[in-house]
Fold this sequence. Notes:
By secondary structure, the chain is an alpha/beta fold. It folds into four domains: 3-54, ADC-like domains (N-terminal domain of TfIIb); 65-134 and 341-424 and 439-507, Rossmann fold (3-Layer(aba) Sandwich); 140-331 and 514-524, Dimethylsulfoxide Reductase, domain 2 (3-Layer(aba) Sandwich), CATH 3.40.228.10; 543-653, Barwin-like endoglucanases (Beta Barrel). It is built from 22 helices and 27 strands. Helix 4 (114-127) packs parallel to helix 18 and helix 8 (219-232) runs antiparallel to helix 11 (260-267). The protein is globular. The relative contact order is 0.18.
Amino acid sequence: MPIFRSACPYDCPEGCSLLVETDGERVTAITGDPANPYTGGVICGKMRRLPGAVNSPERILTPLRRAGGKGEGRFVPVTWEEALEEIAARWKELMARYGPETILPCSYAGTMGAVQRHGGEGFFHDLGASDLVRTLCSSGKGAGWESVMGASCDLSPWEVGESDLILLWSADVAATRLHLGPIIRGAKERGARVTLIDVYENGSAPLADEMLLVRPGTDGALALAMLRVLAEEGLTDEAWLAEHAAGWPELRAELARWSPERAGEITGLDPEAIRRLALAYGRAKAPCIVAGSGFSRSGNGGQAARAIAALPAAVGAWARRGGGTYGFCSAPPLVDKGLMKRPWRTDPARQKVNINLLGPALLGEGVETPIHSLYVYHCNPAAVLSHQNAVRRGLAREDLFTVVHERYMTDTAKFADLILPAPYMVETEDLYTPYGYRQIQYVRPVVPPPGQVKSNWEVFCLLARAMGVDAPHYRRSAGELCRALVEGSAALTAEEKARVLSGEPVVLEAPFPLPVGTEDGKIRLAHPAPITWYPPHGGAEPFRLVCAPSAHTLNSSFNEISEQRERRGERTVRMNRADAAALGLTHGDRVVCANDLGEMEAVLALDRAVAPGAVVAQGVYPGADGVNSLTHPRLSDLGEATTLNDNTVQVRRT
Ligand SMILES: Nc1nc2c(c(=O)[nH]1)N[C@H]1C(S)=C(S)[C@@H](COP(=O)(O)OP(=O)(O)OC[C@H]3O[C@@H](n4cnc5c(=O)[nH]c(N)nc54)[C@H](O)[C@@H]3O)O[C@H]1N2
Ligand SMILES: Nc1nc2c(c(=O)[nH]1)N[C@H]1C(S)=C(S)[C@@H](COP(=O)(O)OP(=O)(O)OC[C@H]3O[C@@H](n4cnc5c(=O)[nH]c(N)nc54)[C@H](O)[C@@H]3O)O[C@H]1N2
Ligand SMILES: [Mo]
């Protein structure tokens, strides 16, 4: 059986390198590639079971035209020529009538490769379409980090193993950072302590010595109180701060307002527990914060990120190996993706639509030029976006010409006028640079695409021709673009470039100490104003809803694999046992979570500890009335990001 190198294309920090076994035509097995020391031959169950999806009879293999009502899911096959002609004719007509901004692309993170992910961004800039603001994931965390740390990067995951105090701060290691588990266990064997700071007992709990469950959206207050204790107890590194940070005196003045008692009231934690955590942090040799994104998906998420990012600076943790943060920001870009995104082809005057506000935008809110055509690729907006009911109402508009490039019949594809068949990564060529560590891998197709499947880039080249977008760029193959990206890289040596182009996964070490990426090289603790905390958006209902990842699916991906659906089971919500008891609810009850936007049914699980007042829903399930029917399309304070974890619900028995 031939075995080929490949890489995981999914939106996950692990960025695994893969070995794909085929029978020449079909993928028969996928395993981890030991040539990547971080993957180390180990991959998640989702990826191991991907061959079932690649070979599934449920795949879309030809272009399809709608034959029923929107959302009904009835389609008939058409040829690529017919599909492309129809798209070009409709777009030309709509552009003539309303201007090009009436077309909106909708893409996010179905595939993370530089060419297949970003190629469409350049195409829609060239077309003059509305710009999509892609802030669906961790932009609040990113903006908070940037305000403090500038363009700095943080540690590599294996450096976490050199820490003696690891704070897993809203990170689910079992679900989203599989390879960090053994690293953390190794650190524990050498004496490190691990504390989980979350709103529930997530998959990281077995790694933790201690668990602090906070009310959602209150992490910033916890971090500020920790800073206050550090300052009061003389545990800050004043010499390091004076040399490497600006604004510490201003932040220190703000800390006067952040006693552990006040933070205790806000977070729900015992003030003594906050004090103990701060003392342990201040006394650790090399404390490391592993930062997930959950805490930042709130109306105050940017500010919370600033407060947490200030902690390692306050104790000078960056000066010691293993000290600092991991996962707070993306690994440095090893290639210049501008080649694909073509940012110079748009301008600030172009209509912008924030992806989080897609539902309202499709219903005419906040857009000057109404959207009459939506082109969806590697994204499943009907499932993953906030205010699902508005998204679905928007997609149901008869006058919205919707094209969806997909692999199987997703919630979104059901609303399409035209569906175009899309590939799995084993059928395409691309360049992957995972955000969780400094790695790069060039991947070629290992099996032929089935049926009439075409990659994102192939479709954009065809659409460019059909629309008369005449740039030599659209005559370059994905392989040529991958090579150009590698050859143009300022981060790789000639030897590394050659290794990348040979298909080898290339892993780079992080420099030590890490350079600070602000203009003057100083960490900014009061720029433009001292770090503080303010309440999240909140809402009128008594419980605060949190959307957590499921270990068995990845956002809405892997729902196409029946074994993954079975492993995940029915939709559950978890809540605090005392809260459930007060409502007269017990484990296994069928409940309804409801708020002003919608309702969702689920089975109540009381199997894990949950912070008082919180309700946790893992995973994204297909169908209407999902968890996103309860999430508001409101943006975060910094970074215009999702506030997926900042919603309230009431809970009742069905
Ligand atoms: N198996 C699996 N892997 C995935 C994904 C998946 O869905 N499933 N998603 C992928 C993607 S796109 C991403 S961005 C990453 C995300 O990876 P992570 O950053 O690890 O995941 P988050 O969604 O941020 O959720 C992490 C934790 O945040 C907690 N949390 C939520 N709100 C708060 C809060 O206010 N305070 C605190 N302290 N904790 C809170 C949740 O309870 C959850 O345990 O993982 C990627 N990998
Ligand atoms: N309730 C809730 N909502 C969430 C989250 C959550 O944890 N809970 N997570 C949020 C986060 S962190 C993120 S990043 C977003 C992610 O949201 P999305 O970017 O929409 O990610 P997925 O749900 O994985 O859907 C990606 C789709 O792309 C398709 N696809 C994959 N590869 C290709 C390709 O090469 N070409 C084409 N044309 N299609 C392809 C897949 O079949 C899949 O249907 O969701 C967010 N929404
Ligand atoms: Mo994400």
